[in-house]
Amino acid sequence: MLNTLSGRFLVLTTVFVMLAEVLIFVPSIARFREDYLRDHLERAQIASLALLADDMLETELEQELLENAEVYNVVLRRDEVRQLMLSSPIPKPVAETYDLRASGPLSLIRDALVQLVVPENRVIRVIGAPVRDAGLLIEITMDTRRLRTAMLDYGFRVLALSAVISVFTAILLFVAVRTFLVTPIRGVVENMKLYAAAPEDARSLIKPHAVLHELREAEEALASLQTELTHALKQRERLAQLGGAVARVSHDLRNILASAQLFTDRIETSEDPLVRRMAPKLVNSITRAVSLCESTLAFGRAEEPAPTLTMVRIASVVQDVLDGESVSYPEGAVTLECTIPPGMTVRGDPEQLFRVILNLVRNAGQAIAASGRPGTVTVSAREEEAAWTITVADTGPGLPAKAREHLFKAFQGGARKGGAGLGLVIAAELIRGHGGNLVLEHSDSAGTRFRITLPKGDGTI
């Protein structure tokens, strides 16, 4: 009950209403005390008027008037003369004097609270103005026992009534909250559960119908989110099916092309000049097709293992890449350089870093070779406080605008004819597995530069 929104609202409402009633109770009890004292002043004044009417009252009648007024003495000031109109023995000395003519709200509240807190019976003197201008002032002496009893009785009745009002108000608010707030929210929650069970079912999409503006906005936002998510799930399912089909086709096509590669080896031995001239082009075309199939299969498997992080001499990894790539180009066409200090180490998976740097260096070298102008590919690295940075820069012609726009998107970011655009996608995924990132710093007619960032700490870059 208390863990629900309506339950907590019920408790908080009761507490707040009780607090408000307490704040009302304090001045109310002070007002009651003031009225009580003024009533006794008036009753004492009436008793003194009887004495003015008959100056020879008997002692028994005078005592009866005092008891009826619940006072010990009555002093009336008329024509600048103080007159002791009625008197009886005072059981103890006067403890406090209260002048109601000059009492403000704060002093009345303070005196009332003191009266409630102090339980002992005291004798007090009360001064006030006579009613109907029957003198300059009237003064009475009385005890506080009956006053405190009357105040406690009044206070208990006020608090009991406040409790009833609080509970009644809280119940009304509880019902209102459940009707106008909790029930609509519960409907939204039930719809979310229904949608989670079958997100592809269009019948589970929420239909906004709330009356409250805020809930209506929430329902509309949820409806928009569910619609977009349903479309995305359908698209993802179609892409998954398409990916499976492509993988199967690529697998079979790779086997066919592998067989075709074997035949091209024999074609190259032909003595026919036309065949000898066309054979290298055929071999290159088949080789690119096989490479595309293998890349597609590798990307579609999505089974790249997590990197095994060790401290790696990055210069050694880069040099292995450059040694392997240097034989791929005619002498003087592409210069490969490594400016990394031999002793520099980074934290990473050596095999995966080799693949990433190989991809970047190979792309750069192929771009330079395709331009027909000599160029240089330089791999450098530096160590910073929070990360290691590896840079692969070239002096080639730069990436085309379309390639830069879709650089890290599969099958869209290929920069050369026949490329699938998967190399950079896979490289970026490998670096993200290290907690770092791979970005293109710049690419123009003066060259291209990629930056690899590997974090030193446990967090990602």
UniProtKB/TrEMBL annotation:
Annotated InterPro entries: HATPase_C_sf, HATPase_dom, His_kinase_dom, HisK_dim/P_dom, HisK_dim/P_sf, Sig_transdc_His_kin-like_C
Record flagged with keyword Nucleotide-binding: yes
GO terms, molecular function: ATP binding; phosphorelay sensor kinase activity
TM region(s), chain numbering: 6-30, 154-177
Reactions catalysed according to its record: ATP + protein L-histidine = ADP + protein N-phospho-L-histidine
EC number annotated for this UniProt entry: 2.7.13.3
Entry keywords, A to Z: ATP-binding, Coiled coil, Kinase, Membrane, Nucleotide-binding, Phosphoprotein, Transferase, Transmembrane, Transmembrane helix, Two-component regulatory system
Domain of life: Bacteria
Domain Histidine kinase intervals: 248-458
Coiled-coil stretches noted in the UniProt entry, renumbered to this chain: 215-242
Name this protein carries in UniProt: histidine kinase
Native organism: Seohaeicola zhoushanensis
Lineage: Bacteria, Pseudomonadati, Pseudomonadota, Alphaproteobacteria, Rhodobacterales
